[in-house]
Amino acid sequence: LSLPTPPARLPYVPRLPPMALLGKVTATTFALERPLCVFDGHADASDSVWLAVAFANASAAFRNPQSRAEVPPYQQLLTARSYMTLETAAAAYSCSCSAPSPPVLRVGGDTACRDQGRHDPCNGPLPSPGPYRVKFLLMGCRGPKAETRWSEPILLSTAASPSTIDPAPARRGSTVVVIASILASLGAVLATAVLGALGATVWGSLCHRGLGIDAFIRRSYRTHHIPPGPPLPLSPGCGCSHPGLCHPAPQPPAPC
């Protein structure tokens, strides 16, 4: 019996996508760059590419399965410290592939298979922050044909515990609000004082120019000159009804 041929060692290193991506690393998943053109020259039409996922401290102990039946399942991750997932036809990663495909691979994005005991490869959520290492493995009908290097350790996001949250920032925020309120009040007082001083200056200028109330009071009001009317005519005799306005009636001459 001949020993199986060891898989070809490819220089490609799996990595996170270099571009900005929402949810590139979460608490249970992470995104990977697709290994395009990596297996050209090694893959046949019937071959498939798998992703091996292992805890970073267990990647050195990982052994490539010799057949699909030996692929370690997701359900044994916590005990075996590794599993394989994302089985994909090798042609999907070929340079000549014209079929549209997702720009990245999402590891841990299938929540439906987490609690199911089915045998097809599960891409369930990762149970802990890790860190993890991954590599791609090209599998043919006679076993592994080529493999990439292991990635750098990938650490997932972790949520902060409520007990570790420092309430001091909230107190500092309240202090800032109080200070801002005080400054706003001082600004309003200062604006009122400035407007008052400006009004007093304008009013004094108007009074200095003779446009104030005192100048208005001091001004005299003169009507147009009206000449005196002609004297009233004298009434004949003393039958005047206005004695004060009548002249005494002429007296007859005294007798000789």
From TrEMBL:
Chain ranges passing through the membrane: 176-203
Top-level taxon of origin: Eukaryota
InterPro entries according to UniProt: Uroplakin-3
GO cellular component, one term: membrane
Keywords: Membrane, Transmembrane, Transmembrane helix
PANTHER family: UROPLAKIN III (PTHR15446), UROPLAKIN-3B (PTHR15446:SF15)
Name assigned to this protein: UPK3B protein
Species this protein is from: Peucedramus taeniatus (Olive warbler)
Taxon lineage: Eukaryota, Metazoa, Chordata, Craniata, Vertebrata
